């Protein structure tokens, strides 16, 4: 089975979007904002937003969910900028002066349309002042890098191979398959026995060379160690769910689970694991 399962999908609320915009703009307004790029920027924004959710007891989202929502918000903000520019040029009404019915008649992608109920004039002003300038600057740098790569595509084979290796390391790792998770859980159990660790001790340990035991031919030790921690928090959540509800997690449909889940307790990187991953494999 190769299906990639992620965090259970729940629409972003107006409160969540406002919180994300505020934390994101605060990062952009920091003196060292220009030094934050790529993964560092994404991680900083996610950590601030996640900490805010923990303080306010809002539903916590995964890093991927936050990154995806940010992309949609940036795309929608850019759409509004272009729409308003065209409207002012042609003497038409700008976006936020349109009625809801008029906005719905505008042809835009469905994933942008979802932002219409949560994206306010105040947020748009924040995007124009803080967020879009930073996004546009990073976009310009990416274009420059792309042009340089095109210009130097006839470089030596040694240089080309080096670039390919760097690009490969930067590529997003493929999703873990159920089979990979089962094998990881088995290695994890053996590792716990060998190191004589309890689950609490494992949860509190930092990554070190002993974790190389968790590695496989396709996954690094660090990737496997990180995934095992995700499996642990997910398994604990499912176990707690099963103690409160019968039938349990694996016998309910996703829509039935959503009605019973305590969303504030859902782990940040919850993995909707299959039953076979937990059967006699995850350490207890």
From TrEMBL:
Biased composition (Basic residues): 141-155
Low complexity bias: start-end ranges: 156-165
Region annotation Disordered: where it falls in the sequence: 141-166
Superkingdom, taxonomy of origin: Eukaryota
Protein name: Uncharacterized protein
């Amino acid at each position: 089975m190769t299906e990639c399962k992620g965090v259970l999908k729940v629409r972003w609320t107006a409160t969540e979007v406002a919180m994300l915009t505020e934390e994101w703009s605060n990062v952009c307004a920091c003196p060292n904002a220009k030094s934050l790029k790529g993964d560092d920027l994404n991680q900083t924004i996610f950590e601030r937003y996640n900490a805010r959710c923990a303080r306010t007891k809002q539903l916590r989202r995964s890093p991927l969910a936050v990154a995806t929502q940010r992309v949609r918000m940036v795309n929608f903000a850019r759409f509004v900028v272009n729409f308003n520019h065209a409207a002012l040029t042609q003497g038409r009404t700008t976006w936020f002066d349109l009625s809801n019915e008029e906005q719905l008649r505008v042809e835009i992608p469905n994933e942008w349309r979802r932002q219409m109920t949560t994206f306010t004039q105040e947020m748009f002003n924040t995007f124009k002042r803080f967020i879009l300038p930073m996004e546009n600057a990073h976009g310009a740098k990416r274009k420059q890098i792309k042009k340089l790569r095109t210009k130097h595509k006839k470089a030596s084979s040694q240089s080309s191979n080096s670039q390919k290796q760097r690009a490969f390391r930067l590529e997003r790792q493929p999703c873990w398959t159920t089979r990979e998770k089962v094998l990881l859980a088995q290695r994890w159990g053996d590792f716990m026995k060998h190191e004589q660790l309890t689950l609490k001790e494992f949860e509190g340990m930092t990554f070190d060379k002993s974790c190389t035991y968790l590695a496989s031919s396709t996954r690094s030790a660090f990737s496997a160690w990180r995934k095992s921690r995700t499996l642990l928090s997910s398994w604990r959540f499912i176990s707690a769910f099963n103690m409160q509800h019968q039938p349990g997690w694996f016998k309910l449909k996703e829509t039935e689970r959503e009605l019973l889940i305590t969303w504030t307790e859902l782990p940040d990187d919850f993995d909707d694991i299959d039953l076979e991953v937990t059967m006699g494999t995850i350490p207890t």
